[in-house]
Predict the structure.
Amino acid sequence: MASLELRNVSKAYGDTPVLDDVSLTMEACEFVAFLGPSGSGKSTLLRIVAGLETPDRGEVWLDGSRIDLLPPGARGVAMVFQHYALYPHMSVRENMAFGLRNAGVARDEIAVRVAQAAGVLEIEALLDRKPGQLSGGQRQRVAIGRAIVKQPRLFLLDEPLSNLDAALRTRTRVELAQLRQRVEAAVIMVTHDQAEAMTLADRIVVMSDRRIQQIGAPMQVYSRPANSFVARFVGSPAMTLAPASLLPGEGGFARVRLGDGAELDTRVARASLSGDGAVQLGLRPEGVTVTGPGAGTTNARVELVERLGDRTLVYARLADGAAVTAQDEGNSRVRLGDEIGLAIDGAAAHLFTADGSGRHAEPGA
Ligand code: ADP
């Protein structure tokens, strides 16, 4: 049975539309990330599922029951907020028990659930402390604990890691991934951090402009982005898009000419593109390597060299001004201002049509 289903959900605040006909079906126990830039409607969608906002149109179903007409507490969902507020005068144990006591759950049952959640989160030793005696990461775990004790069918996490510093964020991300194995429930996490979504989610729902742009497994979204927005938003550094034109040809694969005149054979089916018009050539750094001038597909001028230790990212510009990011070895000798060659792997190239929709290498080509 599908766990959550959104059917044609739309929402506006006054005259401003925020969600436009959003539909989504989640599998049981699936971890889905809503990923998109700030203002793309992710939190509004989450709040509609939680019952904190009412959709103007559309329905929300959980495990076969319509829930969008139910009050938040009756939906079987639990939300962990970005700015989780623990009660400072209560112990961790009391913080976790509070919601259950309000809901009239029996004392013994509360004790069992709090002990179980503390075990899952490995915070047994902290149960008698006050929030002020905890680190940021520990407080975050208590906030998740408050959701776990409710035994929801669906967890809703709103930017759960954004309050943490960089090191703690990475560690908590790992903990969240491990925690996920121990809790039998579906999870929706809202994030604007593509690395977080790639690491944690079974599927990513990429949102922009009030709509879902693509739904897919992390590597599917990364390797076969539906459109140029997704291509640029998922992956760091971003995919570069260079203007190119489709060359007429009989072959099965598209051949393109870049703005600087260089030509490239892709593995994108020619038949998936109509006419011989303008396209954009999408390249990720792993598909472009640095060579000597004149030895690659084309030449470029180096604008920035980013040393990552094991490899070097070279941000360069073609003669027509198009930006391309290339990869070089760790101890690259490339310097700012150098004229270099770029060897472009046609099998790793993506093409985007005039309306922005993506075309990718044929699988196995
Ligand atoms: P995200 O979570 O992707 O950053 P939100 O769902 O928070 O996006 O917001 C989507 C849009 O709706 C934004 O333009 C935001 O300003 C607007 N918005 C959100 N909440 C309200 C509100 N209560 N009243 C009016 N506009 C709102």
In short: The helical segments are 42-50, 92-102, 107-121, 136-148, 166-182, 194-200, 218-223, 228-233.
